[in-house]
Structure to design on (474 residues):
């Protein structure tokens, strides 16, 4: 993801106090601030599907797969950290975004391929977040309904009105012109992500204590509860869910660009931050996923807080689901602002004389502040939100969409491009032992991504056979 969309480019001011070697105001980031950024980016709604993922794989394969993903993420992120500067690791040219790094090291069609995958992934994330937020909003209504009428009440509630509400809110927030103006929204979203994840973990622990034992089996959900074919598809889909929960490499370069100048080099600082944050995240994920599976066994829901493995305390569930919605409102903007800016920059280059695209109308907000309304931004961003909302209403399958997004983004953005850039940067000799090992790692991850994508698509196809669009669901 290209977080730094339109970076300010000051004149070179090397050697002047208060400015870095590229002429920008001194960066102040440390190991701890970088770790905080990574943990905030990684821990999101994907954590809620981990109990279901482990239920498909079982007590042996589930934790092992999670640890393998964490090791791959750490290793490839370390390779990517070395690509922040082109040339010398302390004085070389900085690459401010993921795409800039790909352009510097690989160039050609690979830059366009990287951009296409990035923006396709961002479009998919917008759909996934719209689905997840509506599920949480309907969960609040249903938990209150169960509390009032009892658990045997059907409590049929359509998610469509809530998708429309979420879309309307996003139309408003999407009019914030630039990424750097939504920092406050990101902070609120980060606090909310820890809130609902912690509640899910606490409820899982409480359920295990109430059960008096750990549920689940060594091999996961038994054939009989599902068919052999479903077991295979769900196991593959679980890989995609875990990959989605760990995805953050696409913003690593942007985070690294906040780290203060050497010594030590930004790459060394980033590697320490990556090690710490991946370790913390894996520990947290193992707790949430394993406790959810231990609490519910084969019946672990696809979304721990909305699948109604839990019914009480209903007020705590309401708080957790409200936190999910608030988090996803901010997360939607964090992921979509790069796509918004990309299209607007392209339109400005294509039609530089168009007043509809370039003209801004100043709207006074107070005696000192005003908002600059751009008609093209208003129309295009609103149309984008409407499109993602309509698609979400047609495909409201949280787990399948999460798995597919994880599968699409994992190999190219987390493994392939970092490996290829590292080979170019370090001039790794073809057919040397290191070159062969790196290529084998990339190929193995490609196979995993393809398998996870197949499993998720199979899940979506299966759901579509019985799903009726725009109907209320239980």
């Amino acid at each position: 993801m290209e977080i730094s969309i339109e970076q300010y480019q000051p004149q070179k001011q090397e050697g002047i106090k208060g400015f870095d070697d590229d002429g920008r105001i001194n960066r102040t980031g440390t190991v701890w601030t970088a770790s905080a950024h990574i943990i905030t980016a990684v821990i999101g709604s994907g954590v809620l599907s981990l109990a279901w993922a482990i239920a498909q794989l079982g007590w042996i394969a589930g934790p092992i797969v999670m640890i393998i993903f964490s090791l791959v993420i750490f290793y490839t992120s370390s390779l990517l950290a070395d690509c922040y500067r082109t040339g010398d690791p302390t004085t070389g040219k900085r690459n401010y975004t993921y795409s800039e790094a790909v352009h510097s090291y690989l160039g050609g069609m690979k830059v366009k391929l990287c951009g296409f995958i990035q923006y396709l992934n961002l479009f998919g994330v917008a759909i996934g977040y719209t689905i997840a937020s509506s599920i949480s909003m309907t969960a609040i209504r249903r938990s209150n309904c169960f509390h009032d009428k009892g658990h045997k009440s059907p409590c049929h509630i359509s998610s469509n009105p809530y998708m429309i509400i979420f879309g309307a809110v996003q139309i408003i927030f999407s009019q914030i012109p630039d990424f750097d103006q939504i920092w406050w929204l990101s902070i609120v979203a980060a606090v909310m992500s820890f809130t609902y994840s912690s509640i899910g973990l606490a409820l899982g622990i409480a359920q295990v204590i109430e059960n008096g034992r750990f549920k689940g089996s060594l091999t996961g959900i038994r054939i009989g509860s599902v068919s052999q074919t479903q077991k295979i598809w769900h196991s593959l889909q679980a890989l995609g869910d875990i990959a989605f929960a760990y995805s953050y490499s696409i913003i690593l370069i942007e985070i690294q660009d906040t780290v203060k100048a050497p010594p030590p080099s930004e790459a060394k600082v980033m590697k320490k931050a990556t090690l710490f944050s991946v370790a913390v995240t894996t520990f947290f994920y193992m707790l949430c996923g394993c406790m959810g599976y231990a609490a519910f066994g084969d019946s672990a829901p696809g979304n721990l807080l909305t699948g109604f493995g839990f019914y009480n305390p209903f007020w705590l569930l309401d708080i957790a689901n409200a936190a999910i919605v608030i988090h996803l409102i901010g997360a939607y903007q964090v992921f979509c602002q790069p796509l918004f800016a990309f299209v607007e920059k392209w339109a400005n280059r294509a039609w530089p004389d168009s007043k509809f695209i370039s003209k801004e109308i100043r709207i006074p907000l107070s005696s000192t502040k005003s908002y600059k309304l751009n008609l093209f931004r208003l129309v295009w961003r609103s149309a984008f939100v409407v499109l993602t909302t309509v698609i979400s209403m047609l495909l409201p399958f949280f787990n399948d969409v999460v798995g597919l997004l994880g599968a699409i983004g994992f190999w190219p953005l987390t493994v392939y491009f970092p490996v290829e850039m590292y080979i170019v940067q370090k001039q790794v000799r073809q057919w040397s032992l290191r070159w062969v090992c790196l290529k084998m790692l990339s190929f193995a991850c490609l196979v995993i991504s393809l398998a996870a994508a197949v499993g998720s698509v199979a899940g979506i196809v299966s759901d579509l056979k019985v799903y009726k669009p725009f109907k209320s669901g239980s």
Remarks:
- Residues 1-15 have pLDDT under 50 and may be disordered.
